[in-house]
Every structure is written in structure tokens, then in C-alpha cells.
């Protein structure tokens, strides 16, 4: 039986997410000073210009060489996983595309600027969540979707 890949859909998802990520970051970087903030939804959502030269929550700040190596490894692993394991599963392929776009979006920032542009500033139930961007959102949604796909696959085999 022939393996079925949804390469067109996967490429479109990755390109659209990557484009939105890079365009929004460019708008923030060119139109706002670092620290500037605009309230969008009171007590919930602000657009705040922030830079991060580490991982989530500023972990490993300034370790760009480490991030370059890890990101390249992750991108290669995602492509290999897509080719080997995601056959017949459009949901899994789209999930991998979300991970790929998110990782590549932040990698581009690190490579070109030495830091990542973050701007989505939320306050959820009184918790000031760390400022993030579209690439971070794509990574998070991709991970959630992969967990769902794996759980669904595991329950269908049981």
C-alpha cells in the first residue's frame, strides 16, 4: 500500500505560520521601542515589545551557539519523523508542520538578530504569563496536537 503524505497542506501550513510570525515580529521591531506596551483587552492582553536571547522564560540567556545546534537538530528530526512516522495521518503531519514553522521562525530571529522578538503579553487569571510570539504559539499548539494524535493512535490500537 502506498504511503499517503499531505505535503502540499503541510508546506502551506508551515509557510503561512512562518510568514505571519516574521511579519508580526518585523512590525513590532520597527514600530515599537523595547518595553513599549499597548493594551488590547484590559487586564488580559497587551502588545508589548520585548526581546529574548534565551529560551522560554529567558532560560539559558545568551547561549546562541547552543540554540543554533539544538534547533538544527530539531528541524532535521521533525523532517525525518514526518517522512517515517506521519504517513496516513494528516493531523500528525500538520502538527509537525506547526512545530517546524515555530522552530524555524525563532531560529531565523536568533540567526539574524541574536535574539527573538516577543510581543504577545497576557495576564491569565492574575498570572502575568511570559511574553511570547506567533512561533512560540505554533510550537505549543503543535506539541498539543501531537499529544492528541499519539493518544488517539494509542487508543485506537487498544
From TrEMBL:
Transmembrane annotation, as ranges: 5-23, 65-83, 90-108, 128-151
Catalytic activity, reaction form: Release of signal peptides from bacterial membrane prolipoproteins. Hydrolyzes -Xaa-Yaa-Zaa-|-(S,diacylglyceryl)Cys-, in which Xaa is hydrophobic (preferably Leu), and Yaa (Ala or Ser) and Zaa (Gly or Ala) have small, neutral side chains
Pathway listed: Protein modification; lipoprotein biosynthesis (signal peptide cleavage)
GO cellular component, one term: plasma membrane
Location in the cell: Cell membrane
Pfam family, one: Peptidase_A8
Top EC group: hydrolase
Superkingdom, natural source: Bacteria
One BP annotation, GO: proteolysis
Classification via InterPro entries: Peptidase_A8
HAMAP family the record matches: LspA (MF_00161)
Function: This protein specifically catalyzes the removal of signal peptides from prolipoproteins.
PANTHER family, alphabetized: LIPOPROTEIN SIGNAL PEPTIDASE
Family as reported in the entry's similarity comment: Belongs to the peptidase A8 family.
Name recorded for this polypeptide: Lipoprotein signal peptidase
The gene coding this protein: lspA
Amino acid at each position: 500500500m502506498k504511503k499517503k503524505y499531505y505535503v502540499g497542506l503541510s508546506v502551506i501550513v508551515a509557510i503561512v505560520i512562518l510568514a505571519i510570525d516574521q511579519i508580526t515580529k518585523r512590525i513590532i521591531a520597527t514600530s515599537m521601542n523595547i518595553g513599549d506596551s499597548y493594551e488590547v483587552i484590559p487586564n488580559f492582553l497587551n502588545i508589548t515589545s520585548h526581546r529574548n536571547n534565551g529560551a522560554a522564560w529567558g532560560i539559558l540567556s545568551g547561549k546562541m551557539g547552543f540554540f543554533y545546534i539544538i534547533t538544527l537538530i530539531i528541524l532535521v528530526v521533525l523532517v525525518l519523523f514526518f517522512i517515517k512516522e506521519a504517513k496516513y495521518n494528516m493531523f500528525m503531519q500538520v502538527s509537525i508542520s506547526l512545530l517546524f514553522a515555530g522552530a524555524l521562525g525563532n531560529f531565523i530571529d536568533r540567526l539574524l538578530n541574536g535574539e527573538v522578538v516577543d510581543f504577545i503579553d497576557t495576564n491569565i487569571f492574575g498570572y502575568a504569563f511570559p511574553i511570547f510570539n506567533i512561533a512560540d504559539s505554533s510550537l505549543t499548539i503543535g506539541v498539543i496536537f501531537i499529544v492528541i494524535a499519539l493518544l488517539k493512535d494509542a487508543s485506537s490500537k487498544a
